[in-house]
Structures are given as C-alpha cells and as structure tokens.
C-alpha cells in the first residue's frame, strides 16, 4: 500500500458494511483466509484512539467483522490506508485558546443494517483541539432518533465528569461544561420530566445526565447538524463535510501548526 492512490475520505458513503458481505462458500472463505485483516484493524484502532479521530468511525465499523470478514470488508479496510496516505501530514494541534472544555454528542439512528442499532459519537475539545473522542455502536436498539441522541448525550456526560475531574486537579474549579447536540428533542429530555411517558422504556442508566444538568455540572445546548463536528464519528461523510469536521476537531497540516 506504500504506493497506493490516496482518497479524500476513510469510508465510502455509498457503501454500507454488513454481514451480507461475509463469505458464504468455502471458496470465498479460502480467498480471504490469508488476509491480515485483524492485524490491520488492530493497528488502525490504536491510531484512531490516540491521534486520528477522523478515522474512528471507519475503524469502529470495520472492527465489527474481525472474526467474519469478506473481500469487501478487506477493500474497505485498505481504503482507510489510502486515506491515511493522503493525510499523513495532518495532526491534532493544541494551543492556548482561553476557552473552556466543550463537548459534542451525536448519533446516527438505526445506522447498522444488520441489527438496526445506532452509532454514538462524542468529542471533547480543549486548548483548540479534541482531547477525547469515541465512536461505538449503541448497546440497545433506539426506537427514535431522539432516543438515540439522548443515549449519546448520556455517554458524553459520563466522559465530561471524568475530564472535569482531571482538569480540576490542574486548573481548579471549572464552569459548567457545555455539551452540544443537534437534536432539540434530546436536549429537552435532559431537562423536562414531562417526557417521562415517552421514555420510560429507556434504561435508567441513561438518565444520569438529568442529574448533572440539574446540579449545573453540564448544560446541553443545541447546534445545527451542519455545524456538528461529531458527525465524523457517527457516519461516512462527503469529502467537504468530512474536512469541515476534521478542522473543527483541531486537525491541521503539519506546516500549518505555527500559522493557524
């Protein structure tokens, strides 16, 4: 792959990974038996978790087929390498900004076509770039986009508590941490118990966020989908939107670190 042709995005937006792509015959299994798929995904997971949030969704989606992958999964995995080939000079750039810790939470409802579970994505920025991010498939099926977004907010609130605890040891008392999401219904659920009847089936652990909002530890604010950087952690995007989200998370070209 050293001389591969670069691509603009780590995952093809027109292709949905699924178990339908897994081998069905002995010949198909034999065709991919010698492919180092798991080794590649393991290496990519380390990169996605440490310095490259822009490939986190692609790697998370591909990792679901570690024990049963097909030719299309292998092609999709190699596409991530092609993307990295073209963006190897990008990195997260931190600088003094004077801004407080801020979070972003997003979800792609029923995105997995095998079991219809949603994908959650969360990111927290400090000092001008992302310091924490996560992309994963939700543990239960959400019955609406609002419910999926609410579960993503709940996960982000737990990460906010952890980050605040760490930063307060260094910086002292922090202001309320703002978490942005692009679903107004989910935002209302964090504050308004009137919606209880519509959400009484939601696992009680997801309501942890309500307590944090009530005590002022975090606040949930709305942001339009077009401005949501966590989109990059929940789905494959067009090249223009992918680059917008990547920049919003603080990724810059190496030669731009001192100028931007």
Descriptive key words:
single chain, 260 residues, alpha/beta, Nucleotidyltransferase, domain 5, five-stranded mixed beta sheet, two-stranded antiparallel sheet, 9 helices, 38% helix, globular
If you had to describe this structure to a student in words, what would you say it looks like?
With 260 residues, the protein is α/β, with parallel strands linked by helices. The chain folds into two domains: 19-88, no CATH class; 92-255, Nucleotidyltransferase, domain 5 (2-Layer Sandwich). It is 38% helix and 15% strand. It has nine helices and seven strands, in the order H-H-H-H-E-E-E-E-H-E-H-H-H-E-H-E. Helix 2 (37-50) packs antiparallel against helix 3.
């Amino acid at each position: 792959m050293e001389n591969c042709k670069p691509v603009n995005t780590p995952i093809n937006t027109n292709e949905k990974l699924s178990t339908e792509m897994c081998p069905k015959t002995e010949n198909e299994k034999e065709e991919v038996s010698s492919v180092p798929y798991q080794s590649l995904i393991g290496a990519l997971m380390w990169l996605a978790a440490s310095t490259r949030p822009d490939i986190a969704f692609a790697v998370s989606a591909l990792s679901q087929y570690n024990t049963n992958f097909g030719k299309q999964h292998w092609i999709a995995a190699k596409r991530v390498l092609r993307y990295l080939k073209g963006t190897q000079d990008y990195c997260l750039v931190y600088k003094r900004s004077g801004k407080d810790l801020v979070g972003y939470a997003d979800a792609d409802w029923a995105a997995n076509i095998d079991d219809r579970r949603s994908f959650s994505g969360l990111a927290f920025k400090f000092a001008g770039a992302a310091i924490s991010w996560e992309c994963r498939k939700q543990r239960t099926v959400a019955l609406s986009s609002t419910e999926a977004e609410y579960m993503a907010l709940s996960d982000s609130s737990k990460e906010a508590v952890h980050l605040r605890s760490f930063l307060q040891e260094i910086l002292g008392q922090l202001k309320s941490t703002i978490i942005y999401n692009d679903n107004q219904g989910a935002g209302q659920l964090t504050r308004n118990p009137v919606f209880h009847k519509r959400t009484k089936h939601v696992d009680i652990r997801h309501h942890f966020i309500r307590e944090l909002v009530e005590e002022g530890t975090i606040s949930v604010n709305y942001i339009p989908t077009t401005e949501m950087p966590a989109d990059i952690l929940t789905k494959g995007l067009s090249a223009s939107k992918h680059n917008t989200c990547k920049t919003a998370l603080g990724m810059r070209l190496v030669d731009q670190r001192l100028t931007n």
